[in-house]
């Protein structure tokens, strides 16, 4: 099944055709630190934490530059927002340390941070007005729709190239498709593709703001745009059928009932009588309650984004690392990330918050482990907890893993939700 991951669908971007050729870093390409500097310039964010209040005050004045209607904004093409960015791990060894993990491959959490920054810059490129140096828009990540990998290992000493463009636009939201390629023997070969959804808000990040419409220019671009529409509908459908809103399907109810019957302890009682209190674990299984890990982060100013909230990429990296650790301790061998999907950014995380992360194995099949990481902030003054994100990660382990078994109804719902995510991922890859 690991081999299936390496069958990459053809890059779905017209613009990406030119990518697979070409050798080492093109001299004119932005690198990742330049991407972050550019974002600061576009928003007018200060590099000093002390000055951020002043910088945010200055942004208020940009309100007058917002469009009253979407029709007032010039339409854009896909190639207008197209960017290529280099991560020169091969040609600049000094940046390698930051990206290196203990297995001598690239830390995937760092890649998540880079994709997040790049996605935002692509959207600012789409909405750029020639006459204004600063953008009145606050563009933030609303959702990571999916990231699918086709390579198990990302090498720490070969250049990486990211490419991407806006692929679909609503009134105030934009879908961004990004690809990551790595240089081998003079050629860039695909590693992953990612679909993010970004939303535009006013200068103070309080209300939605209009963005430039997108005009597809060829049948192929029409197809990509249509796919963006479908993705949106699929998300609505997935959320409508959520187990928090609707009862499980008949087939899912049977699955849960079978698990329940499978864990009843018939030895305790005489013939024909079974106690519902006494449960036994089937062979080669682990109770769901014993398959979790927790983590805590104090949110320091260093991890802030250009709007002085905690950077979404940082949250993704921390959640991924906890998810990886949960999969590693559960499976007893090194797990590899296969897919990330359906990360909703429900609430921004303020600097100074206590961020509580909990990782849970919620579904397993053969070598695969489906992990859900729940993140919430705790406000020490009000003593309130608020969910900020739910993350879904699919890992593949080197060996077959034990079955995870729910005990309570709540755990059974998590199990079914994990199964749904896993099934959706397997269809994709």
UniProtKB/TrEMBL annotation:
SUPFAM superfamilies: Thioesterase/thiol ester dehydrase-isomerase
Compartment(s) where it occurs, according to its Swiss-Prot or TrEMBL record: Mitochondrion
Main location: mitochondrion
One biological process term in Gene Ontology: acyl-CoA metabolic process
All copies of domain HotDog ACOT-type, residue ranges: 81-204, 289-401
GO molecular function, one term: carboxylic ester hydrolase activity
Any single GO CC term annotated in Swiss-Prot or TrEMBL for this entry: mitochondrion
Entry keyword set: Hydrolase, Mitochondrion, Repeat, Serine esterase, Transit peptide
Domain of life of the native organism: Eukaryota
Family per record: Belongs to the acyl coenzyme A hydrolase family.
Name of this protein: ACOT9 thioesterase
Gene that specifies this protein: Acot9
């Amino acid at each position: 099944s690991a081999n299936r991951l390496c069958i990459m669908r053809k890059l779905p971007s017209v613009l990406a055709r030119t990518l697979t050729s070409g050798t080492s870093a093109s001299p004119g390409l932005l690198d990742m630190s330049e991407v972050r500097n550019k974002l600061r310039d576009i928003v007018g964010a200060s590099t000093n934490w002390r000055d951020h209040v002043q910088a945010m005050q200055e942004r208020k004045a940009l309100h007058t530059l917002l469009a009253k209607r979407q029709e007032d904004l010039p339409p854009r093409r896909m190639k207008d927002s197209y960017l290529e960015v280099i991560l020169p791990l091969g040609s600049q060894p000094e940046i390698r340390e930051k990206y290196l993990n203990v297995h001598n491959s690239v830390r995937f959490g760092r890649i998540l941070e880079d994709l997040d920054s790049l996605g935002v810059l692509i959207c600012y490129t789409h909405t750029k007005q020639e006459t204004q140096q600063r953008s009145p828009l606050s563009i933030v990540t609303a959702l990571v729709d999916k990231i699918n990998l086709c390579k198990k290992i990302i090498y720490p000493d070969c250049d990486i190239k990211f490419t991407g463009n806006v692929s679909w636009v609503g009134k105030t939201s934009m879908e961004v498709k990004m690809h990551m390629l790595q240089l081998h023997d003079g050629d860039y070969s695909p590693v992953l593709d990612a679909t993010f959804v970004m939303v535009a808000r006013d200068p103070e990040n309080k209300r939605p703001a209009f963005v430039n419409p997108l005009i597809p220019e060829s049948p192929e671009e029409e197809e990509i745009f249509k796919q963006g529409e479908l993705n949106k509908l699929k998300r609505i459908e997935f959320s409508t059928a959520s187990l928090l809103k609707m009862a499980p399907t008949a087939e899912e109810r049977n699955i849960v009932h079978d698990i329940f019957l499978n864990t009843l302890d018939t030895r305790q009682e005489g013939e024909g009588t079974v106690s519902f209190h006494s449960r036994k674990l089937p062979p080669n299984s682990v109770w769901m309650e014993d398959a979790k890990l927790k983590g805590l982060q104090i949110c320091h100013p260093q991890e802030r984004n250009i709007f002085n909230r905690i950077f979404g990429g940082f949250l993704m990296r921390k959640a991924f690392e906890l998810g990886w650790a949960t999969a590693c301790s559960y499976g007893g061998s090194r797990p590899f990330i296969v897919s990330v999907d359906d990360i909703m950014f429900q609430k921004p995380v303020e600097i100074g918050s206590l961020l509580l992360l909990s990782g849970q194995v919620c579904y397993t099949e053969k070598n695969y482990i489906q992990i859900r990481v729940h993140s919430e902030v705790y406000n020490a003054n009000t003593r309130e907890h608020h969910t900020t994100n739910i993350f879904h990660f699919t890992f593949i382990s080197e060996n077959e893993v034990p079955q995870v078994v729910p005990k309570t109804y709540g755990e059974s719902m998590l199990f079914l939700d994990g199964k749904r995510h896993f099934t959706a991922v397997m269809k994709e890859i």
